């Protein structure tokens, strides 16, 4: 569903329709953000790492688990502090990153 453009006059049925669409879209985006906060696998880059069927099954499983958590009052714990305090230079994998990247490009 898309809003009617250009913006219709206030008070018209088209303006009411646009207002409803905006309200619904805001609600959907907020809930999608909460789902992505709970299941970080949904935050990955837009590249599809699985077949479309598997990706859909993963998203459905996350939605079901999210609803179970809501029903049981399980809150989302966002751990931002640990990431900010992490010393990225201690990652042994990081040392070989440039070499691995160059090797991958050669292949």
Automatic annotation (TrEMBL):
Residues in coiled coil: none
Cofactor: a divalent metal cation
Domain of life: Eukaryota
Domain DDE Tnp4: 12-67
Single GO MF annotation: metal ion binding
Segments of skewed composition (Basic and acidic residues): 90-107
InterPro entries from the UniProt entry: HARBI1_dom
Keywords per UniProt: Metal-binding
Chain residue ranges for the region called Disordered: 87-107
Protein name per its UniProtKB record: DDE Tnp4 domain-containing protein
Organism: Zophobas morio
């Amino acid at each position: 569903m898309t809003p009617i453009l250009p913006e219709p006059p206030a008070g018209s049925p088209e303006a009411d329709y646009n207002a409803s669409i905006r309200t619904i879209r805001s609600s959907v985006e907020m809930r999608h953000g909460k789902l992505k906060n709970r299941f970080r696998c949904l935050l990955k880059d837009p590249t599809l790492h699985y077949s479309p069927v598997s990706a859909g099954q993963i998203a459905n499983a996350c939605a079901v688990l999210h609803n179970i958590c809501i029903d049981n009052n399980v809150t989302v714990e966002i751990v931002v502090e640990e990431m900010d305090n992490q010393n990225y230079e201690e990652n042994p994998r990081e040392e070989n990153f440039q070499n691995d990247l160059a090797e991958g490009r050669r292949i």
